[in-house]
Design brief:
Length: about 290
């Protein structure tokens, strides 16, 4: 398992991963039972922390009652106002502790991986509730949607993540800066009209901004335009195919034919990524 996924478990639980990274995480979790178990174990750790905080609060309340002095002779009542104030303070401290130390996790089961079936059973002891459920077997998992496979295979080219440092008059430079800041709508707005000095580079940047923003039909259109010719033809062929895969009305024979051509072309810069994706598609269709 890729060790970097350990650092992403909390972010995945809390929904802080971008869509492409979340999809890649779910693909890895569906393929790796160790990662799936680690995700569930982390969720159980949070639940155990909540249980411990709750138990500590109960102990403090019991101690508060036990430490109250007995009523003096003569039938005078106990100082209930003081007890009530103490309980309220302890309750407030407990709520603050829970909110401060225990985030609310998302369901650890991948979005497209069914959770193990649970038969009805009577309530058991707390320790049985915290047992780690075994990861689902590969033959019981539903196939991952094509959109998730495409998003997991997508990688932003290194050249698009570097700021050009252009002045305010350079539209393409401003678009690059917005892209590195993940302001994809701003990139599209700046490049509605492509600059005359470098239209191919600007079109490539706009296509990736569309894809990163989830506008896959627009991304496919821009990548198709880049395929017509120029230095980005092969790169556009790969990313245009990924955009095609995400669309519900996509023609499977079209994008699979493109994927086959890329994986068989040893000189294609995306040949290895295409081979990996092809294996995932084949396994999915079994």
């Amino acid at each position: 398992m890729n060790d970097s996924y350990y650092d992403q478990i909390d972010d995945y639980h809390l929904g802080r991963l971008p869509a492409t990274e979340s999809a890649a995480f779910e693909v890895a979790m569906a393929a790796d039972p160790i990662l799936a178990t680690a995700v569930r174990s982390r969720r159980l750790e949070w639940e155990a922390q909540e249980l411990l905080a709750e138990q500590q609060l109960r102990i403090q309340i019991r101690q508060a009652f036990a430490e109250q002095p007995p009523p003096p002779p003569g039938g005078r009542t106990m100082p209930w106002k003081g007890i009530l104030l103490t309980l309220l303070l302890l309750l407030a401290a407990g709520i603050f502790f829970l909110r401060k130390t225990t985030p609310t996790p998302k369901e650890a089961t991948p979005a497209n991986t069914p959770a193990p079936a649970q038969s009805p059973a009577p309530v058991q002891e707390d320790k049985e509730k915290n047992q780690v459920a075994p990861p689902p077997m590969a033959d019981t998992q539903k196939p991952l949607p094509l959109r998730q496979l495409a998003m997991a295979a997508y990688r932003v080219p290194d050249g698009l993540t570097q700021t050009r440092g252009a002045d305010a008059g350079d539209t393409l430079g401003l678009a690059y800066t917005a892209f590195t800041q993940k302001k994809y709508a701003r990139v599209v707005q700046l490049l509605i009209v492509l600059p005359e000095n470098d239209p191919q580079e600007a079109l490539l940047l706009r296509a990736h901004a569309h894809f990163a923003a989830g506008q896959y039909a627009a991304a496919r259109r821009d990548f198709k335009d880049l395929e017509v010719g120029g230095i980005y033809r092969r790169e556009a062929q790969w990313f245009g195919m990924l955009a095609e895969m995400t669309l519900p009305d996509a023609d499977k024979s079209t994008w699979t034919s493109t994927l086959q051509r890329i994986r068989k072309d040893n000189k294609h810069p995306c040949q290895k990524a295409a081979e990996t994706l092809w294996k995932q598609v084949v396994n999915r269709d079994k």
